[in-house]
UniProtKB/TrEMBL annotation:
Residues 1-25 form the signal peptide. Keywords: Signal. Gene3D superfamilies: Periplasmic binding protein-like II. Coiled coil: none annotated. This is ABC transporter substrate-binding protein. InterPro entries: SBP (IPR006059). CDD domains: PBP2_polyamine_RpCGA009. Pfam families: SBP_bac_8 (PF13416).
Amino acid sequence: MMRRLLLAATALMGVAFGAAGTASAQDRLVVAAYGGSYEKIMRESVIPEFEKANNVKVDYLAGNSSDSLARLQAQRGRQEIGVVLLDDGPMAQAVSLGFCQKITDQKALGSVYPIAVMGDGKAVGTGFGYTGIAYNADLFRQRNLPVPASWMDLAKPEYKQRLSIPGIDNTYGLHTLVMMARANGGGENDIAPGFKVMREKINPNVLAYESSPGKMSEMFQSGEIWLSVWGSSRVAAMKESGFPLEIVRPKEGAVVLMTATCAVEGAPKPELAQKFVAHLLSPAVQVAFSTYYGSGPTSKEVKLPEDVAKRVIYGEDQVKQLVTMDWDVINKNRTEWTRRWQREVER
């Protein structure tokens, strides 16, 4: 009897050690991407299928684009992050700094709109959003205010202390500066008109230069602000919660705001990183983010249900209408513009 018990215990220990060996042998992939609702979608609708199909454990590092780019810079030469997701501006920086390896899945890369291919194929957009003018539709109706139609409408005197714009540390704030420059004879290569308009015409209307999405939402809900420069996905999230927020694409153009991804150069398991990048471009994943996050699909192969399609950037005609930024010029001047913004605009 004792001998049988010992044999059984030994067998169980063998199973346990075998299981532990299998678990320890399982590959791991570190993915750095956004927090909040984006993280929820990744954990529920994107990562489980990838883990199952590739026998891998995905470790998720949540943070905004600045946080993730800073991690890449801190880990240069000893990268732990396999895949990173950033806004298109910071992604352009990541590519220029050598953090992104060329995408190897040419079929996946070929499925996206040309505007979504970045850095000669070293990064790719995974979702289309845009920066426009968000406004409280109920309040505008009650006050008989016309819906904003132009970037320069932000200077209207009736909006005094009722406008919020994110700071220049935020992509929305940067888009605002460039579009103000473009609307007044300048642009990325001549930013002075943008600063002049911000300082003299927009500033009187600004209650707060607020980069926190949570705080921006609170100010809309409390009625402190009536309108803001914000992103389509942020507006979609508030609408989903029942708040009467709408967003318009100004006549001068709504600025494309892509989520973008790349496989990190020098990181462990590059083949898994490349597979994950391709996974993010698959129709099922793209539909999930269109449905639950409000980002338009960058893949031309995606077919959206009608109720989802009408809420996002979808189809070649709408993609062509998006305004792009010259990130090479912007990133070269961003530090100087930030200092100038702090001196002249957000004082």
